[in-house]
């Protein structure tokens, strides 16, 4: 996808170690998953005797079981016992909650708090399901010490809708709810002591920012087919992998544009590491993608890239366990890449000549698959995927000096990285590749400018015949740009003349047709009454009135006869003529601000989504490989 009028595109897609807290969390999650596997295999139910007594307290048998499993895992017995006690307590709580829900109708929600809180991130909250989303948000804020307007709640991979009840949104007993702070950076932690009013103001600003994002994307998507001057008016367009515009069925187009627009906005937040704000944008993108047909999603890689970004965002928030279908999303991404790129990337190579740049996506895919398997207690599978990610990293690593050499030739760092990966690290070949790509894009821009110029000429031609700009654009759209066919459409549908550019109030203000114009139509052979009615409908435009009367056998169509009768009783003046001027100007300024805010986050380079320094990936690959290496070492000793 791209924006024109300042042309930008939206895709149709080592260092320090991880903090110690991350390591502890990852290792604990692995042990929990592994112990849960053992319990299932041994058919042990910890919430029953001898592991839980009649008072629901821990039984002595749990210690013996912990010793058995710690020997099996070559782990600290106390650590294993502690985790098993957590598993037991959760099972007891769930059983108690189920009984309580059956008798009282009060559901239990598992609330996952932001990572900055460090302790007690997973908590249980009881609530009725007939309350609204706003009431649940208020309850969570009060219970866990948040400002109500400072948080968003994600349940079932969707933002909680404040005006609907929990039942209407599919919220059920034992569901998981993730709390997102509108800002969750270290800076916010340091500023936590500031006055509550300041925090609320910042939260309101963020909420308005998100609302502007939504409005800006809607405006740009609506403009796509109706823009008159493409050089002056920004709008969204959809491009294929070579950068050329492609036509999408109108029923799919707006949903696809909104999906891709939200995705780009979410990616902009991801780059700034604002994961709490990125996730709602990514989930909105997923919602709009789901409105598109399956065939369309199978032909673009954007949907696959989005799945990776959603899982990555959950992972970076430290809330991967909230994403119950992480495995499904990663599998969906892999299948989508296969359909888009072909087996062994042969379709991609045919289109673009190489597949080096897209390998970055597979590195992220293998890394996330490795992490998910590790968190699920599957050490061997985790090692396999992490090793594949490691091998790809070595292949994709770029010598900084080569990037510097290309920048000395006048290329950007981004162009240098993408060019080097496309050319297997060869500087000379990369320079040629980047130059050729620039020339190809320049040619595409020239062709599309010419296409837009012809469209503008056709619009002006139809306007010269008396049609409004809006009617001309709609007719040309229906006629796929064919001027002759557009004229036929307008003649067959004279009511399209009412698609006016001005406000509805002013559209209906019509003066009585002049005697001269009536006589002109009568001289052509039309009935005086029909001529007067036609001129009233078409605001005195003799040419349109004559064309319509000829096309309809000397009469107005029934729907236009009604319009003529309505217009004859419409007053020619209105006391509110000037009242809306100020508010209209304000609305226009707000729309311009919303659009500009979107454009700031749309990357100029069409392959921005493939550009990565891989610094974060390098750290995480090394960290998780160390985890699975420790597991393998322990297994060998055992």
TrEMBL record:
Residues in UBA domain copies: 397-437, 447-493, 512-552
Region Disordered: start-end pairs: 556-610
Protein name: UBA domain-containing protein
Database matches in InterPro entries: NUB1, NUB1_ubiquitin-like_dom, SASH1/NUB1_homeodomain, TPR-like_helical_dom_sf, UBA, UBA-like_sf, Ubiquitin-like_domsf
Listed Pfam families: SASH1_Homeodomain, UBA, Ubiquitin_5
Skewed-composition ranges (Low complexity): 563-585
SUPFAM superfamilies given in the database record: TPR-like (SSF48452), UBA-like (SSF46934), Ubiquitin-like (SSF54236)
Bias (Acidic residues) ranges: 586-610
Superkingdom: Eukaryota
């Amino acid at each position: 996808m791209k924006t024109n009028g300042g042309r930008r595109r939206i895709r149709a897609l080592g260092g320090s170690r991880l903090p110690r807290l991350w390591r502890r969390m990852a290792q604990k999650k692995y042990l929990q998953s592994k112990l849960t596997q053992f319990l299932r295999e041994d058919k042990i139910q910890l919430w029953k005797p001898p592991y839980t007594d009649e008072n629901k307290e821990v039984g002595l048998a749990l210690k013996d079981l912990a010793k058995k499993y710690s020997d099996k895992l070559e782990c600290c017995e106390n650590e294993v016992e502690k985790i098993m006690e957590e598993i037991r307590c959760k099972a007891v709580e769930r059983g108690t909650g189920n009984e309580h829900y059956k008798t009282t109708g009060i559901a239990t929600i598992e609330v996952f708090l932001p990572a900055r809180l460090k302790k007690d991130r997973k908590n249980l909250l009881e609530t009725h399901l007939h309350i609204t989303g706003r009431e649940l948000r208020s309850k969570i804020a009060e219970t866990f010490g948040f400002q109500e307007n400072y948080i968003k709640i994600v349940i079932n991979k969707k933002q909680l809708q404040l005006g609907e009840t929990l039942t209407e949104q599919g919220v059920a007993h034992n569901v998981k709810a993730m709390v997102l702070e509108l800002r969750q950076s270290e800076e916010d932690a340091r500023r936590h002591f500031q006055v509550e009013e300041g925090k609320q103001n910042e939260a309101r600003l963020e909420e308005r920012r998100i609302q502007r994002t939504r409005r800006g994307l809607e405006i740009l998507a609506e403009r796509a087919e109706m823009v008159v001057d493409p050089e002056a008016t920004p709008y969204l367009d959809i491009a294929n992998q070579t950068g050329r515009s492609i036509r999408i069925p109108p029923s799919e187009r707006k949903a696809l544009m909104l999906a891709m627009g939200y995705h780009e906005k979410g990616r902009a937040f991801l780059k700034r590491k604002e994961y709490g704000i990125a996730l709602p944008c990514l989930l909105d993108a997923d919602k709009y993608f789901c409105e598109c047909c399956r065939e369309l999603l199978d032909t673009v890689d954007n949907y696959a890239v989005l799945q990776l970004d959603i899982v990555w965002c959950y992972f970076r928030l430290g809330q991967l366990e909230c994403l119950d279908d992480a495995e499904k999303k990663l599998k969906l991404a892999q299948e989508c890449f296969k359909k888009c790129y072909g087996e062994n990337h042969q379709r991609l190579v045919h289109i673009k000549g190489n597949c080096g740049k897209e390998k970055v996506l597979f590195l992220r895919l293998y890394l996330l698959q490795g992490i998910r398997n590790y968190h699920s207690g599957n050490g061997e599978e985790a090692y396999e995927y992490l090793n594949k990610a490691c091998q790809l990293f070595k292949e994709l690593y770029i010598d900084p000096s080569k990037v510097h050499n290309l920048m000395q030739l006048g290329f950007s760092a981004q162009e240098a990285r993408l060019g080097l990966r496309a050319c297997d690290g060869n500087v000379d070949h990369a320079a040629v590749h980047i130059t050729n790509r620039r020339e190809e894009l320049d040619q595409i821009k020239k062709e599309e400018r010419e296409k837009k110029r012809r469209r503008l000429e056709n619009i002006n031609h139809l306007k010269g015949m008396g049609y409004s700009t809006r009617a001309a654009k709609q007719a040309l759209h229906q006629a796929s740009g064919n001027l002759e066919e557009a004229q036929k459409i307008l003649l067959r549908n004279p009511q399209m003349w009412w698609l006016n550019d001005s406000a509805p109030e002013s559209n209906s203000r019509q003066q009585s047709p002049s005697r001269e114009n009536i006589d002109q139509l009568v001289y052509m052979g039309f009935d005086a009454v029909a001529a007067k009615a036609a001129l009233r409908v078409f605001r005195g435009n003799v040419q349109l009135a004559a064309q319509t009367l000829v096309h309809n056998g000397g009469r107005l169509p029934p729907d236009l006869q009604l319009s003529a009768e309505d217009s004859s009783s419409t007053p020619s003046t209105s006391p509110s003529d000037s009242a809306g001027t100020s508010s209209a100007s304000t609305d226009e300024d707000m729309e311009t601000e919303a659009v500009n805010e979107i454009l700031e986050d749309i990357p100029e380079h069409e392959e921005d989504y493939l550009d990565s320094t891989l610094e974060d990936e390098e750290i995480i690959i090394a960290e998780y490989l160390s985890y699975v290496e420790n597991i393998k070492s322990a297994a060998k000793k055992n």
